[in-house]
Amino acid sequence: MRKLFAGLLISLILSAFAVITANAQEGTNTATLAAGLTSGSINSTAAFTAGAGSTVNGFVTAVAAVTLGANCTVTGNVTAGAAFTSGDSAIIRGSISAKAAFTSGANSAIGGNVTVGADFTSGADSIIVGDVFVTGAITLGAGSRILGSVHSGTGVIIYGAGATVGSVN
């Protein structure tokens, strides 16, 4: 009887770890990813913050703001219900949609389109491969490059020294 109980207890513990691991991989209601850690896709019913050097192998979706620390990598699209902010050298291999302001750190790279419901500011020497659609003003840091087109709702586009845009609409 004791062996059966011990076996059952061990089985229950292992099952609990399997459920916890599955939830962590799905990113169910994740608000924070600590510095240097890796996760699968992220869903947050609030804001989401990733610490410096962390990696998200998939998408990031948050009801509120999304903040990525320096040297973070996201392999999918990012959707923020409020502002989007990234630290220096952040890499997003997908598109970004933010309902509020967008601010990227220096040397950041975005591999898709950016859609912003307020002002847009890119850090120095950043690159965006896609198009940028902004309801507010656009400020490009020194040496920034947008390979696609930019669309400013206010018509205000401020270029830092050496900043370039594929086309302005």
Structure notes:
- With 169 residues, the protein is mainly beta.
- It folds into two domains: 1-26; 31-168, no CATH class.
- Helix content is 15%, strand content 38%.
- It is built from one helix and 22 strands.
- The strands form two sheets. Strands 2, 3, 5, 6, 8, 9, 11, 12, 14, 15, 17, 18, 20 and 22 form a 14-stranded parallel sheet that branches. Strands 1-4-7-10-13-16-19-21 form an eight-stranded parallel sheet, with no helix packed on it.
- The longest helix is centred in the first third of the chain and has 25 residues, at 2-26.
- The protein starts with a helix and ends with a strand.
- Mean pLDDT is 88; it is low at 4-10 and 12-27.
Summarize the SSE layout with pairings.
Layout lengths: L1 H25 L5 E2 L4 E2 L2 E3 L3 E3 L4 E2 L3 E3 L3 E3 L4 E2 L3 E3 L3 E3 L4 E2 L3 E3 L3 E2 L5 E2 L3 E3 L3 E3 L4 E2 L3 E3 L3 E3 L4 E8 L4 E3 L4 E5 L1
Parallel strand pairs: 1-4, 2-5, 3-6, 4-7, 5-8, 6-9, 7-10, 8-11, 9-12, 10-13, 11-14, 12-15, 13-16, 14-17, 15-18, 16-19, 17-20, 18-20, 19-21, 20-22
Number of domains: 2
Fraction of residues in β-strands: 35-45%
Morphology: globular
Radius of gyration computed on alpha carbons:
20 Å
N-to-C span: 76 Å
Please, how many helices? 1
> Structural class, judged by helices and strands?
mainly beta
Q: Main beta sheet: strand number and arrangement?
A: 14 strands, parallel
Write down the oligomeric state: single chain
Order of helices and strands: HEEEEEEEEEEEEEEEEEEEEEE
Low-confidence parts: 4-10, 12-27
* Overall average residue pLDDT: 88
Instruction: Give the strand tally.
Output: 22
